[in-house]
TrEMBL record:
<dbReference type="InterPro" id="IPR002376">
    <property type="entry name" value="Formyl_transf_N"/>
</dbReference>
<comment type="function">
    <text>Catalyzes the transfer of a formyl group from 10-formyltetrahydrofolate to 5-phospho-ribosyl-glycinamide (GAR), producing 5-phospho-ribosyl-N-formylglycinamide (FGAR) and tetrahydrofolate.</text>
</comment>
<comment type="pathway">
    <text>Purine metabolism; IMP biosynthesis via de novo pathway; N(2)-formyl-N(1)-(5-phospho-D-ribosyl)glycinamide from N(1)-(5-phospho-D-ribosyl)glycinamide (10-formyl THF route): step 1/1.</text>
</comment>
<dbReference type="GO" id="GO:0005829">
    <property type="term" value="C:cytosol"/>
</dbReference>
<feature type="binding site">
    <location>
        <begin position="88"/>
        <end position="91"/>
    </location>
    <ligand>
        <name>(6R)-10-formyltetrahydrofolate</name>
    </ligand>
</feature>
<dbReference type="InterPro" id="IPR036477">
    <property type="entry name" value="Formyl_transf_N_sf"/>
</dbReference>
<dbReference type="GO" id="GO:0004644">
    <property type="term" value="F:phosphoribosylglycinamide formyltransferase activity"/>
</dbReference>
<feature type="domain" description="Formyl transferase N-terminal">
    <location>
        <begin position="2"/>
        <end position="180"/>
    </location>
</feature>
<feature type="site" description="Raises pKa of active site His">
    <location>
        <position position="143"/>
    </location>
</feature>
<feature type="binding site">
    <location>
        <begin position="11"/>
        <end position="13"/>
    </location>
    <ligand>
        <name>N(1)-(5-phospho-beta-D-ribosyl)glycinamide</name>
    </ligand>
</feature>
<feature type="active site" description="Proton donor">
    <location>
        <position position="107"/>
    </location>
</feature>
<protein>
    <recommendedName>
        <fullName>Phosphoribosylglycinamide formyltransferase</fullName>
        <ecNumber>2.1.2.2</ecNumber>
    </recommendedName>
</protein>
<feature type="binding site">
    <location>
        <position position="63"/>
    </location>
    <ligand>
        <name>(6R)-10-formyltetrahydrofolate</name>
    </ligand>
</feature>
<dbReference type="InterPro" id="IPR004607">
    <property type="entry name" value="GART"/>
</dbReference>
<feature type="binding site">
    <location>
        <position position="105"/>
    </location>
    <ligand>
        <name>(6R)-10-formyltetrahydrofolate</name>
    </ligand>
</feature>
<keyword id="KW-0658">Purine biosynthesis</keyword>
<dbReference type="GO" id="GO:0006189">
    <property type="term" value="P:'de novo' IMP biosynthetic process"/>
</dbReference>
């Protein structure tokens, strides 16, 4: 399974995937693409011998033009799967349709709660006892695509958005490689009726 990973930042989820592949997950990362030249994830990729590219959205006249250039870069790798790992850009409908059924995202909340930004702060403000993260197929609805897997963590007394984010991220680093493994093994697909694992609706 050939994977292209899109990042904007630290790339700890990318690292979890690199580590899982080193430990036997049957996939290869053909390229890591960042919209930011200073993303630390680019260093992680280079350290693992993975090709990197920077495509700065600021150099393009609008979202559609950027997304078309991004599609070109990605498709040069002929990926089976595109993994959004902290890629902080909203993708156009054209992009999402182009990768329908082979585009995964991880979001730091128990979707459908807290779509969008500042999820840890919002969970704290709401007084939630539990919080977590979700892997989902990407559709045109922002953070609204069909769910694949979630990790739940407790919210503890005295938690700050940062301490909670760290706990949630440990969950992310488990479930994202797991979802990619299911996909790479041909067990996970987005069918007409929604997500299927081993041919059964999730
Ligand atoms: C993660 O918390 C992910 O849920 C969100 O962006 C963050 C990326 O972190 N979409 P990293 O770059 O993988 O460390």
């Amino acid at each position: 399974c050939n994977v292209v990973v899109l990042i904007s930042g630290s790339g700890s989820n990318l690292q979890a995937l690199i580590d899982a592949i080193a430990a036997g997950l049957p996939a290869r990362i053909g390229a890591v693409i960042s919209n930011r030249a200073d993303a630390y994830g680019l260093v992680r990729a280079q350290n693992a011998g993975i090709a990197t590219a920077v495509l700065d959205h600021k150099g393009f006249d609008g979202r559609e033009a950027f997304d078309r250039a991004l599609i070109e870069r990605i498709d040069a790798q002929r990926p089976d799967l595109v993994v959004l790992a902290g890629f902080m850009r909203i993708l156009s409908a054209e992009f999402v349709r182009h990768y329908a059924g082979r585009l995964l995202n991880i979001h730091p909340s128990l979707l459908p709660r807290y779509k969008g930004l500042h999820t840890h702060q919002r969970a704290l403000e709401a007084g939630d006892a539990e919080h977590g993260c979700s892997v989902h197929f990407v559709t045109e609805e922002l953070d609204g695509g069909p769910l694949v897997v979630q990790a739940v963590v407790p919210v503890l007394n005295g938690d700050t958005p940062d301490s909670l984010a760290q706990r949630v991220q440990r969950g992310e680093h488990h479930i994202y490689p797991l979802a990619v493994r299911w996909f790479a093994e041909g067990r996970l697909r987005l069918g007409e009726q929604g997500v299927e694992l081993d041919g059964q609706p999730l």
